[in-house]
Write a structure and sequence with these properties.
The protein is of the alpha/beta class and 316 residues long. It contains ten helices and twelve strands. The mean pLDDT is 97. The structure holds NADP nicotinamide-adenine-dinucleotide phosphate.
Length: 316
């Protein structure tokens, strides 16, 4: 039986993006190929990648395998990757993309994002140069210059759409004031403990759709503390899940969809990959959304990149 289709939404440049994609950060080589293949077999078309996840070669092998076995065509897939911070110099932008295209074994990306608004001095590829104290060396390169180089990738038809990631309101506005091509999305951390209401509203006002990364608050990140609150076990969410006869993961993803966001949960488990797409057969009632919104916390952000917090372009 054919897998049910994941709905798509129109972006401001006229292209369409599936509202649910598969995240691949922390998905290990050796696991990620099977995960991407399972996702494509289950009906996922949108895959979220980055060279800094150090698994694009395996993701590319999975994509190639699913095209070869006839499950999908390249045109039906929606492949996203990101310009890493070591490629912010305008002359390096195309080289950064070319590494990703080669590793993913594709001729173009559907969407290319600037991963973070701060540049890093390159040692080689996505590896940063470090100072005598082993600290990453940042650069002062203006992300607007980097953006202009990304616009050229659209003109060259190497990418269909471009967007940003981890940008704040002011940085979005600076791009909008200086661009020829507008960013279609801002991919940021978003979940009930850090619901990004002001940024989501700001982006929506500009026609930019927010992509919610870490929709489960990234419980497998290496610096997660054992005593931090666990979103997937939050009693308020467990109660909502029970009401709809769904899992907490389903509720967390449906919450993003109801807000008009795109979301990209990561999993390497075929069962959870399938479970995470069981979110298009129910709707959350406004009273349940209000309950979920009460979970927002001032310390809810889990991805901070705090080592560069003094940089003039630090977004958080
Ligand atoms: P996440 O999606 O919030 O959580 C992933 C974790 O949840 C994994 O431990 C996974 O375990 C588990 N999980 C998945 N489905 C589950 C389910 N149904 N029930 C219970 N547990 C489940 O974390 P994330 O990886 O941080 O974020 C998602 C994606 O967003 C990333 O992979 C990446 O593609 C993107 N991202 C982008 C940025 C950026 O700067 N642009 C930053 C962070 C993340 P299993 O794998 O074992 O199932």
């Amino acid at each position: 039986m054919a897998a049910a289709e994941i709905p798509s939404v129109k972006l401001l440049d006229g292209t369409s993006i599936p509202v649910l994609g598969l995240g691949t950060w922390k998905s290990k080589p050796g696991e990620v190929k099977a995960a991407v293949e399972a996702a494509i077999s289950a009906g996922y078309r949108h895959i979220d990648c980055s060279p800094v996840y150090e698994n694009e070669v395996e993701v590319g092998d999975a994509i190639a395998a699913k095209i070869k076995d006839g499950t999908v065509t390249r045109e039906k897939l929606y492949i996203v990757s990101k310009l890493w911070q070591t490629y912010h110099e305008p002359d390096d932008v195309e080289a950064g993309l070319k590494v990703t295209l080669k590793d993913l074994q594709v001729e173009y990306l559907d969407l290319y994002l600037m991963h973070f608004p701060i540049g890093f001095k390159q040692q080689s590829g996505h590896t940063s140069a470090r100072d005598a104290n082993n600290q990453i060396i940042t650069t002062d390169r203006d992300y607007v210059d980097t953006w202009k180089a990304m616009e050229k990738l659209v003109e060259k038809k190497l990418v269909r759409s471009i967007g940003v990631s981890n940008f704040n309101e002011k940085q979005i506005d600076r791009i909008l004031e200086n661009c020829t091509i507008k960013p279609v999305t801002n991919q940021v951390e978003c979940h009930p403990y850090f619901n990004q209401k002001p940024l989501s509203d700001h982006c929506a006002n500009k026609g930019i759709i927010l992509t919610a990364y870490s929709p489960f608050a990234s419980p497998d990140r290496s610096w997660a503390s054992p005593d931090e609150p666990k979103l997937l076990e939050d009693p308020a969410l467990v109660a909502v899940a029970k009401k709809y006869n769904k899992t907490v993961a389903n509720i967390l993803l449906r919450y993003q969809i109801e807000r008009g966001h795109i979301t990209i949960p990561k999993s390497v488990s075929p069962d959870r990959i399938t479970q995470n797409k069981q979110i298009f057969d129910f709707k959350l009632e406004p009273s349940d959304i209000s309950q979920i919104e009460k979970l927002n916390r001032p310390d809810g952000r889990v991805i901070l990149m705090s080592f560069c917090k003094d940089h003039k372009y630090y977004p958080f």
